[in-house]
Amino acid sequence: MRRSAREGVATIPDVARHAGVSTATAARALGGYGSVSPKTHQRVLVAAATLGYRPNGLARSMITGTTHTLGVVLADIENPFFYRALRGITDTARSRGYGVVLTNTDEDASLEREALTTLLERRVDGLIVCPAEGGDRRHLSDTVDSGLPMVLLDRHVPGLGVDMVGLDNRRAAADATRCLIQHGHTRIAIVTGGREPVLPTPTQRNVPGIQGSSVTTPARAAGYRDAMVEAGLELRPEYLSASGFHRDDAAAATEVLMNLSEPPTAVLAFDSILTLGVLLALRRLGRRCPDDVSVLGFDDAEWAEVVSPPLSVVRQPVYEIGSKACTLLLDRIEGGGRRPSQHRLKGQLIERDSTAAPGTAVHEDAALLAT
Amino acid sequence: MRRSAREGVATIPDVARHAGVSTATAARALGGYGSVSPKTHQRVLVAAATLGYRPNGLARSMITGTTHTLGVVLADIENPFFYRALRGITDTARSRGYGVVLTNTDEDASLEREALTTLLERRVDGLIVCPAEGGDRRHLSDTVDSGLPMVLLDRHVPGLGVDMVGLDNRRAAADATRCLIQHGHTRIAIVTGGREPVLPTPTQRNVPGIQGSSVTTPARAAGYRDAMVEAGLELRPEYLSASGFHRDDAAAATEVLMNLSEPPTAVLAFDSILTLGVLLALRRLGRRCPDDVSVLGFDDAEWAEVVSPPLSVVRQPVYEIGSKACTLLLDRIEGGGRRPSQHRLKGQLIERDSTAAPGTAVHEDAALLAT
DNA sequence: ATGAAAGCGCTAACAG
DNA sequence: CTGTTAGCGCTTTCAT
Predict the structure, then answer these.
(1) Which of A22, A105, A276, B309 reaches 20 to 30 Å from B225, CA-CA?
(2) Which nucleotide lies nearest residue A24, CA to C1'?
């Protein structure tokens, strides 16, 4: 059915015949290369139009060796960070004539490996990948070794030797923690989302290598530690809460936190999904924010100022991260090879009403009227 | 640089030579078709592995006429409806061995046309498109005529003759409106997002053709009208608020609504982004929800139960809509041609605390503790 | 400015 | 089971 309908599509030889020229000439006219006299050019275009000719990108790509397609591999398109970044990527790609094929990995390294395999088969011109947390990463280095341009999004993989664009996580987390400390909090917990507890051991302190060179979660944990240590505050292992990456994981983790004999008075959540879980758990437990506990979350989701109370956040320039990643990739594809570098964009702390001094009630109306 | 690095990649002839077999045999072993003796099969695989052979999907596609790639064309990936649907699409596609290339149109018909053109060039096997509101649509019918399988997402285009999957909008909107009416509201406004006011004229009432056969916004407006008429309530043109599709458009529209001499006591917003705008505007104006005005929104966004008050919504089975669209498409691609049909999934009204009787205050604690 | 012919890497008959 | 031979639709020398 469909086969037969699509079978009769006109090809360059068809157009050439119809226009009374050679295939080479027709191809030149259609492809806009080489040189053709205005007259024949016109004739070919007319023939193409009447025959309903559509160029076959596959054939073209086979010759030219370029597909004008980028592969994007990320954890989960339903996460605000990723869909915003993706918009930055697709906009930039489109403006430069590239398409984007998308794959979700759900943080699963083997899905990631699979994705790379099919993307390589598809002969994409380059890759933007947010590497899955943990797991084997040989597939990444293999891909890089194959010569395919790649840029990392959000996370860094030491030793991979490719460009990377992301937040200055350590600094952002330190700023966020300092903000909480300045409000007078000393019992500050983090909800990290990582699978294993990220316990900043004393020996890790100020190890130069870790600075800006680790993946997101440890880097943020390091920033938290920096600020805590700097303020002379105790690092309590029970405040380092590694849940899964889902909302309900964070909610469960928060409940554990709140049932501690000495519960934290402030919580720093490492992304907006986790923050949602924290808020939900607090609501279920009947804990008021910021009266009972202050909440500060990474990522300025669209709902952040509509929740109650309006949420204080670390805003990431997500769209820019995506578009910068894409620009770097395209430049590398089209231009030449600069040395790979890390691009760390600065976060912005936006204080709304979910952060306050511990044990301090805020006037109802003030919270309500705040924008 | 990159060119040279990728140039030396092994091809089937290389592998064949290395394994001491013909290209055909090597291809059969590698491609898993035809028949090869276990021994040679093994030998070819080893040769491929040592040479680092990677199949070239372009060449394969040229022959087989199938790319195992789907084109997805939607308005804006940052909209919850779309990223959830996309997740349904990509999951389904992946499970059946297909990849997805994504394009945003921002409701711009000419971007949509462009997108279809490049997707056709890329020789995708099928298309899932959420047609842009308004504008010329010949490109859609041209595409369908070319024989490329297509299914419409969320919106219907009369006469196009393709499958479509979406919400039963008219019914869902009617249910939502009835809910508001049952609470005692009579002054109910809608924030539609459409560019032009969707004024349900008396002549349109109960026109059979319109039932389930129009695009989203008019269908929802029709459902609203159904419920209003059924309750004998007046349809006021000034309560039909057509903003743009952005949050701030809806906020502006809401302010206009609230500054009316007789402002509505309830607002029905047609998607979650618009709802956000409504809530924001109410907060800015110092109007309390649901005390001063009830709010009911389409789409159960992840933040809906965390805002204050927890939001009553019409939940769409968005993921299912996406995955069903994908399933229909793949079945059509791989199977044969059933007659195209419309699939209207039912919405679910979830009442939380943003809807109440007009002028009724809700106890603070009740709102806070509600899940 | 145009044409003839040689492939890109792979699959698909068709022989053997 | 294996090899030979044509191409898929296009670009690209190399002539003319």
Answers:
(1) B309
(2) C3
Verify if strand D has an atom below 7 Å from the CB of B13. Answer: no
User: Tokens 């002839």 belong to which residue?
Assistant: B13
A286-322 pLDDT per residue, tens: 999 999 999 999 999 988 988 888 999 999 999 999 9
A vs B, Cβ pairs < 8 A, gives: 179
The bridge status of strand B99-104 relative to strand A99-104 is: antiparallel
Average pLDDT over residues A158-178: 96
Q: If contacts are CB pairs under 8 Å, which of residues 123-182 in chain B contact chain A?
A: 123, 146-149
pLDDT of residue B101: 98
Residue–nucleotide distance: B24 CA to D1 C1' (Å): 12
Q: Which of B94, B102, B371 sits opposite A90 (nearest CB)?
A: B102
Residue ranges of chain B with pLDDT lower than 50? Answer: 1-6, 202-214, 361-371
Q: Cα–Cα distance between A203 and A168 in angstroms, integer?
A: 22
Pairing between strand A312-315 and A348-350? antiparallel
Distances (CA, A) of B114 to A153, A185, A318: 28, 55, 27
Asked whether residue B24, judged by its CB, lies under 7 Å from any atom of the DNA or RNA strand C, the reply is yes
Check CB contact under 8 Å for A102 and B102. Answer: yes
pLDDT class for A121, splitting at 50, 70, 90?
very high
pLDDT tens, residue by residue, A52-68: 999 999 999 999 999 99
CB-CB contact of B239 with B188 (8 Å): yes
| Residue B41 Cα distances to B23, B26, B31, B167, angstroms | 12, 8, 11, 50
Residues near B100 by Cβ (< 8 Å), separated by ≥ 6? A101, A102, B69, B70, B71, B72, B86, B89, B90, B93
Other CB atoms closer than 10 Å to residue B15's CB: what's the count?
26
Domains of chain A (ranges, CATH numbers): 12-64 (1.10.260.40), 69-167+319-345 (3.40.50.2300), 169-316 (3.40.50.2300)
Quick one: average pLDDT of A340-358?
96
Q: Coil, strand, or helix at residue A266?
A: strand
- Contacting residues of B for A283, CB less than 8 Å apart: 306, 368-369, 371
pTM of the full structure: 0.89
Q: Report the C-alpha gap between B321 and B327 in whole angstroms.
A: 10
Residues B81-123 have pLDDT tens digits of 999 999 999 999 999 999 999 999 998 999 999 999 999 999 9
Nearest CA among B93, B264, B271 for reference residue B172: B271
- Separation between the CA of A334 and the C1’ of D6 (whole angstroms): 36
- Return d(Cα A363, Cα B13) in angstroms, integer: 77
Q: What span, in angstroms and rounded, lies between the C-alpha atoms of B126 and B34?
A: 27
> How many CA atoms, within 13 angstroms, populate the side-chain half-sphere of residue B180?
32
